[in-house]
Amino acid sequence: MRRLLLALPFALLPLAMAHAADVHDHDHEHSSLPPHEHGVGSLNVALDGQTLELDLDGPSMNLVGFEHVATTDSDKAKVSSARKQLENPLVLFSIPKAAGCTADEQELKSPLFESSPEEGVTKGEHHHSDIEAHYAFTCSQPDALKALDLAQFFKTFPGTHKFKVQLIGPSGQQAVEVTAKAPTLKF
């Protein structure tokens, strides 16, 4: 049951892009990918039975305020703080306590989190440093998951203004946008 989202083509884009980035150094083949916009992240949400999965992808500019490798102490502190916040998804996504969700797995990926930033960043500088997070939860009362409130996320990362969301839940698949002004995502 792991990785429900990988069955869907939109979830494969980051993988295809990562693979292509190794092979080519130019972007025109990826015309199907949405343009990189500051302040806009993408979020894939899937709820299937008791399994809730979240896949987040946001330009690091939205989350830490810069895209370069953290060299100064203040930049490193920002990266470390962002990482700590992302490691607490139940709070960050305001997942209702009544749903009884526990995190089974979480994975954070970003060139900014690498300990030896020289690899891959200088080579792929123009690809922008994105921060990707994947979470899987088991929820004992999934019926209590009526909505996700991203207000806390927007408050924590004020550089993020909007999420383009692909949501797969009990009522089927929908594409919605969630903004700081309208932060609620209904299942």
TrEMBL record:
Cleavable signal peptide: 1-20
Source taxon at top rank: Bacteria
Keywords associated with the record: Signal
Pfam families per the UniProt record, alphabetical: ZrgA
Keyword Signal carried by entry: yes
Protein name: DUF2796 domain-containing protein
